[in-house]
Design brief:
Layout: H1 2-20, E1 28-30, E2 60-65, E3 71-74, E4 77-81, H2 82-86, H3 96-109, H4 130-143, H5 147-154, H6 163-168
Parallel strand pairs: 2-4
Antiparallel strand pairs: 1-2, 3-4
């Protein structure tokens, strides 16, 4: 049990490191990336987004700290409860790529997308991790609104591949997308 908790805590720390660039525990910042836009000024989810419509955010600070709840955002800060990250009690740990992918799915939904990320549908395997898995999770979330939140909730008690069938009506291999 300890190794599962430790590995998930390390995965969360690694995800924070990929965002903040440090393990010091002190808040650090990263630069926001503009949302993907078509020439018509719409994002991939068809919301009109012009530079004049967006809040000018120069930096976002990520805190991993003890507190109540799971996480919250206020002003230009994201606060994640370290106790929540460390209290995972699942019997079978989720694939590492899925943990990384969920973290990057959050970045994707917040429009903090580095220019080097793959385009939707690219990648070798759904659980390849990072941007590839984030894009796959976005696809699944488009198939069923709230899919990632529900999958995350199910994974609190362990991971089972049939979760995809439970949530999407098809197994992960049937949910493939892309090229």
């Amino acid at each position: 049990m300890q190794s599962t908790t430790q590995s998930l805590t390390e995965a969360a720390t690694a995800a924070a490191v990929s965002v903040s660039g440090t393990r010091s525990g002190r808040p650090t910042a990263f630069e926001p990336c503009p949302p993907p836009q078509s020439s018509s000024g719409t994002t991939s989810d068809n919301k009109t987004t012009y530079p004049s419509d967006r809040k000018n955010v120069q930096k976002v600070t990520l805190f991993i700290e003890n507190g109540d709840g799971v996480a919250f955002a206020v002003n230009n800060e994201i606060h994640v409860n370290a106790n929540y990250l460390g209290n995972y009690t699942g019997d079978a740990p989720p694939p590492g790529g899925l943990i990384e992918g969920i973290a990057d799915f959050v970045r994707l939904k917040a429009n903090f997308i580095p220019s080097h990320w793959v385009k939707p549908g690219q990648g070798d395997r759904w659980d390849q991790g990072y941007d590839v898995t984030a894009r796959f999770l976005e696809y699944c979330d488009d198939l069923r609104n709230g899919f990632v939140a529900e999958l995350n909730k199910k994974m609190r008690s362990g991971y089972n591949a049939p979760y995809f069938v439970d949530l999407l009506g098809k197994n992960v291999d049937q949910a493939k997308y892309g090229n």
